[in-house]
Amino acid sequence: MIVRSRSVENSEQATRPTDLRRSSRDWREVAEKVRAGERLSAEDGLALLSCNELPVLGELAMEVRFRKNPEPRVTYIVDRNINPTNVCIAKCRFCAFDRLPGDPEGYVLPKDEIFRKIDELMEVGGVQILMQGGHHPDLGIDYYEDLFRSIRERYPDLHIHGLSPSEVSHVSRVSKISLEEVVGRLQKAGLNSIPGGGAEILVDRVRREIAPGKSMTDDWLGVMRIAHQHGMRTTATMMYGHVETPAERVEHLLRLRELQDETGGFTAFICWPFQPGGSELDLPRTGANEFLRMNAVARVMLDNFDHQQTSFVTQGDKLGQMGLFFGCDDFGGTMLEENVVSAAGTQCLITMQEIETTIRAAGFVPARRTMSYEVLAS
Ligand code: SF4
């Protein structure tokens, strides 16, 4: 994948947030609330985000992690990322993967190529494809129905985890049908669950600044609500470390927690930092401390989420392993290939054996799972 820089002409220079409001609340009081199993408020979350005692945050997160999942088990899934197209009209300012219509590097994968990728996944015992791509202006409901139906006919037991909420909204716009109809028809065609991609930060001020062409907060949550009402499970994500304030990170977590209270449809939460490189947003990379802190705070705030994944794909196996001591009980997926993060110059893929070795080296027991966190016999 060739990384290219998008012109920054005529675009506003991105800046780190200026609203760095610190909580007046003492983090020690919040720690007591976590230990007592009490629900945390926005002010509590803000106090933990600005707490300098990283080991304490880790300890609190692990308390919640083991309350939720008492076994010293860390799960992972054998899956493959397939990006059916990189053609996209959304123009997110942090993206280095997309190509505008007409760009010679734009592609739509032929079905045979998709089948070949799935065959490779099946050969290594894979159980799921993660299918996400660009907002292609010509690909509507007919294209995705046909694609999922063809995959379902050929691979009846394969789990199709596909189309993030913003893609579902895009299909709805292209085909001029309701979100309910898109979700219902895709489910009938073979879609099993929806990945939580494209959440970035679920605050419209932030979304307007970094991804104005993508669905806004209520739309993203609305697609997830519809999916949950259709009996689909979904994941939830967060991309932090760009133009958002600490208070907006907390607001993101609270919006997810609120929907989870209502539907219970989220299986897991995954967060990773903005990856500079090849994209229009010119901001420095946030570090390891921030990754561990964000995971720990998410784990204690999201008291109604059963699982949390550590993002080794963006952080590497060592820091990904550290995430297991800051509230994460899952190592994510093998992916086999990853194009979106790698377009921004960051990619860390390791083999199933390496995943298991990394989990064992941290003192946990590795286990393969399905999307719904059912543990598979090894
Ligand atoms: S992040 Fe997704 S929606 Fe945004 S520009 Fe990239 S491919 Fe398009």
How would you describe this structure to a colleague?
With 378 residues, this protein is of the alpha/beta class. α3 (54-68) crosses α11 (288-301). It contains 14 helices and nine strands. β6, α11 and β7 form a beta-alpha-beta unit. The two termini are 34 Å apart. A three-stranded parallel β-sheet has the order 8-1-9, with helices on one face. A three-stranded parallel β-sheet has the order 2-3-4, covered by helices on one side. The protein has a three-stranded parallel β-sheet with strand order 5-6-7. 42% of the residues lie in helices and 11% in strands. It has helices at 27-35, 42-49, 54-68, 111-123, 141-154, 165-175, 179-189, 204-210, 217-229, 246-263, 288-301, 312-322, 340-343, 352-361; strands spanning 73-77, 79-82, 128-131, 159-162, 234-240, 266-273, 307-309, 330-333, 365-368. The chain has a single domain, classed as Aldolase class I (TIM Barrel, Alpha-Beta Barrel). It is globular. The chain binds iron/sulfur cluster. The site of iron/sulfur cluster has 12 residues, from loops.
Characteristics of this structure?
9 strands, three-stranded parallel beta sheet, alpha/beta, TIM Barrel, disordered N terminus, 14 helices, binds iron/sulfur cluster, about 375 residues, globular
